[in-house]
Write a structure and sequence with these properties.
The protein has helices spanning 31-42, 76-82, 99-113, 133-148, 168-174, 191-203, 222-233, 244-253, 258-272, 282-287, 294-300, 302-310, and strands at residues 23-25, 47-51, 66-70, 88-91, 117-121, 151-157, 176-179, 185-186, 210-214, 220-221, 238-241. The chain is α/β, with parallel strands linked by helices. The longest helix is centred in the middle third of the chain and has 16 residues, at 133-148. The N and C termini lie far apart (44 Å). Residues 21-261 form the NmrA-like domain.
Length: 312
């Protein structure tokens, strides 16, 4: 059955200018997409988002300048419909076994639709020969975009600072969080800075052909991150290094699909070899603003962590 596709649904409470959108945002309901759509709306940009179901439409009710179309990455007809009139597109899907084929579907339809420029959310160190499955599939899609003839900008962020929000429960219950990384340093990046770079590349010029490796301003070990979280939260937080097998079991218990859990273990093996410790200036180069450091992240998300603490 084809997914229901509704072109140009207008969120009820939003004020949408008469101008037709030429920017499409996919992955708009996720953490990066939510921040990106907020930035674009505040900039007064008219844009379109592609979402998976009618339930997602209401998430954009308060944003001005947005059109909503329902589409499915596995249904090329709905992708084609979402791309009508689009000049620039932001490509982001869930990281799953289907991600490579879904993104390749999108690239094919974008080329057919005459899209001029794709901004793709990729990953730090994407490489066709990588032992990390996530890095391989991102590299395959990057290569397809390059071969398509469309202009491109690839955003390759490092580990997301907000990924630590997934440890809220263990921090609340035990004052601890866990991973298989040892004492390696990682230049983690705030998703708000990733979204800011995406907004800049979708609305500005001079980003064509660029590959932005997005990091925070410092490389930290996980124990150093724990110390900064403890300072922000006002109570002890400890990092505990665990074997990869234990981390895999925990991820599966938390509900991660096996494919994704195995991919995260590969990611952390990559991190554990200090292969993700480089610090770049690419966030500032793209946006004109310095990236947030980890202490700022911890401070800004204190209420989120404390909410988890107060519920236990």
């Amino acid at each position: 059955m084809n997914t229901l596709s509704i072109p140009a649904l207008q969120p009820e409470d939003a004020t949408v200018p008469a101008t037709s959108p030429t920017i499409l945002v996919t992955g708009a309901t996720g953490t990066i997409g939510t921040e990106l759509t907020r930035i674009l709306s505040e900039k007064g940009v008219v844009f379109r988002v592609m979402v998976r179901s009618a339930r997602d439409v209401k998430k954009f009710n308060t944003l001005a300048g947005v059109e909503v179309v329902i589409g499915d990455f596995n249904d090329t007809a709905t992708i084609a419909q979402a791309l009508v009139g689009i000049d620039r597109a932001f490509l982001l899907t869930n990281s799953s076994e289907q991600a490579e084929s879904q993104q390749l579907n999108f690239v094919t339809e974008a080329r057919r639709a005459g899209v001029a420029h794709i901004v793709k959310l990729s990953q730090f160190a994407a490489d066709l020969a990588s032992p990390v499955r996530f890095l391989r599939y991102h590299a395959v899609v990057e290569q397809a975009i390059k071969l398509s003839g469309m202009a491109f900008t690839f955003l390759r962020p490092n580990l997301f600072m907000q990924g630590l929000l997934g440890f809220r429960a263990s921090i609340a219950e035990q004052g601890k969080f866990f991973a298989a990384i040892g004492d390696a340093s990682v230049s983690a990046v705030d998703i708000r800075d990733i979204a800011a770079v995406a907004a800049a590349t979708l609305t500005g010029s001079g980003h064509e052909g660029k590959i932005y490796t997005l990091t925070g301003p410092e490389a930290l070990t996980h124990p150093e991150m724990a110390d900064k979280l403890a300072t922000a939260l006002g109570h002890p937080v400890t990092f505990v290094d665990v074997p990869p097998a234990a981390m895999r079991d925990a991820l599966i218990q938390f509900g991660f699909p096996i494919w994704q859990a195995d991919g995260l273990i590969e990611d952390y093996a990559h991190y554990s070899h200090n292969e993700a410790s480089v610090v770049t200036t690419d966030v500032q180069d793209a946006t004109g603003s310095a990236p947030r450091d980890f202490a700022a992240f911890a401070h800004d998300y204190t209420s989120v962590f404390l909410t988890a603490l107060s519920s236990h």
